[in-house]
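[step 3/7] inverse_fold.run input=structure_tokens len=171
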């Protein structure tokens, strides 16, 4: 929450690339979490199943790898995606997606995965998952840029409907 959406909640400032000073973060969070220190923070970052967070090389700064709703520039370099990527959602969003495609909404990018299981897990967070297959290589060939976050999530600004294939978990 703090590193992706509301750093001001604890009076933390992120730089233009989303980095926060580790010592400042620890100082501000130790009021709420008395046992939090650099070792525990490193353990949290390394053991996070989605690898949502990253340190800079000397571990003096930390940031979320993607998924921000605050304005930052992660300096991602465009990258050629695999032929297909996947997006997990639920049935109640399908009609809107069929009209407008996948939109980034309040995030910086649409999030896609190379793994079908990951898309199933993401979709299942809100109910019975519906998996969308994205013809990513075709999009890229048509000039739509893709990026890959530090934790291997594929990102793009929008997935138009004509690049989507709809499939539910039981197929």
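[step 3/7] decode complete -> sequence:
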């Amino acid at each position: 929450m703090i590193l992706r959406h509301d750093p001001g909640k604890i009076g933390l400032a992120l730089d233009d690339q989303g980095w926060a000073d580790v010592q400042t973060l620890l100082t501000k969070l130790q009021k709420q979490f008395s046992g939090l220190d650099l070792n525990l923070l490193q353990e949290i970052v390394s053991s996070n199943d989605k690898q949502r967070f990253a340190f800079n090389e000397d571990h003096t700064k930390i940031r979320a790898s993607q998924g921000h709703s605050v304005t930052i520039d992660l300096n991602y370099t465009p990258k050629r995606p695999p032929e297909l990527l996947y997006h997990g959602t639920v049935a109640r969003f399908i009609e809107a997606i069929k009209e407008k495609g996948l939109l980034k909404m309040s995030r910086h990018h649409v999030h896609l995965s190379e793994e079908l299981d990951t898309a199933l897990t993401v979709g299942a967070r809100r109910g019975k998952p519906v998996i969308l297959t994205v013809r990513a290589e075709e999009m890229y060939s048509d000039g739509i840029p893709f990026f890959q976050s530090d934790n291997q999530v594929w990102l793009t600004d929008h997935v138009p409907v004509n690049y989507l294939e709809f499939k539910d978990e039981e197929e």
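[step 4/7] annotate
The first strand starts at residue 20 and ends at 21.
The mean pLDDT is 87.
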